[in-house]
């Protein structure tokens, strides 16, 4: 699958430390998959495989042809060809912000397993839904201002999720 097809969660680089163990990750991934499916009212697919990779690999997959220093930092990516969520090695799932990026990529997994990529008007619509659910999940976890935590605002989010005119 071409790297350009990988759906990426992009943010100005703010790397964190301390990855968690796989045992708790499996439960988190399963629970998040079911939460996402319930929120968008589709059947829950099997949870995705989650793998760790370094920042260079994530940037290469998400921004092919860009020099490492020119590409923005990437927290996670979903590879639809393999069904694998790739998380930055520094991702610490005990931190809500980092866990929300896992959830964002799981949204893409659920979307593609349910054919939403074929019915969406454009990829921006899928990305917008993933960010909206990421924000909603953070709110449900008690985060007072999820947009600020993610380093964005409502206007930017609206721009991100807007499909170009046909």
Short description:
By secondary structure, the protein is an alpha+beta fold.
Rg (CA only):
15 Å
Number of domains: 1
Please outline the major beta sheet.
4 strands, mixed
Percentage of residues in strands: 5-15%
Order of helices and strands: EHEHEEHHHHH
Strands side by side in the biggest sheet = 1-3-4-2
Distance between the termini: 26 Å
**Classification by helices and strands:** alpha+beta
What assembly state would you assign to the polypeptide chains in this entry?
single chain
Helical proportion, percent range:
40-55%
What does this entry look like structurally?
The chain starts with 6 loop residues before the first strand and ends in a 5-residue tail after the last helix. A hairpin with a 4-residue loop joins strand 3 (74-79) and strand 4 (84-88). It has one domain. Strands 1-3-4-2 form a four-stranded mixed β-sheet, with helices on both faces. The radius of gyration is 15 Å and the shape is globular. The longest helix is centred in the first third of the chain and has 18 residues, at 22-39. With 166 residues, the chain is an alpha+beta fold. It has helices at residues 22-39, 55-62, 96-113, 116-119, 123-140, 146-149, 154-161; strands at 7-10, 49-53, 74-79, 84-88. The protein is built from seven helices and four strands. InterPro entries: DUF6647. Keywords: Signal. This is DUF6647 domain-containing protein. Residues 70-144 form the DUF6647 domain. Pfam families: DUF6647 (PF20352).
Topology:
Layout lengths: L6 E4 L11 H18 L9 E5 L1 H8 L11 E6 L4 E5 L7 H18 L2 H4 L3 H18 L5 H4 L4 H8 L5
Parallel strand pairs: 2-4
Antiparallel strand pairs: 1-3, 3-4
Organism: Caenispirillum salinarum AK4
Keywords: Signal
Protein name: DUF6647 domain-containing protein
């Amino acid at each position: 699958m071409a790297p350009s097809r990988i759906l990426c969660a992009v943010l100005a680089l703010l790397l964190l430390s301390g990855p968690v163990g796989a045992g708790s990750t499996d439960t988190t991934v399963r629970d998040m998959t079911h939460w996402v499916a319930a929120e968008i009212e589709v059947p829950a697919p099997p949870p995705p495989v989650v793998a760790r990779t370094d920042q260079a690999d994530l940037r290469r997959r998400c921004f092919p042809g860009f020099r490492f220093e020119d590409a923005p930092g990437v927290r996670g990516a979903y590879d639809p060809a393999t069904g694998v969520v790739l998380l930055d090695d520094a991702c610490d799932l005990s931190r809500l912000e980092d866990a929300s990026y896992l959830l964002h990529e799981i949204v893409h997994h659920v979307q593609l397993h349910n054919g939403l990529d074929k019915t969406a008007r454009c990829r921006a619509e899928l990305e917008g839904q993933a960010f909206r659910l990421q924000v909603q999940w953070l709110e449900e976890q008690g985060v007072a201002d999820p947009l600020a935590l993610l380093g964005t605002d409502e206007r930017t989010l609206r721009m991100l999720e807007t499909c170009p005119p046909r």
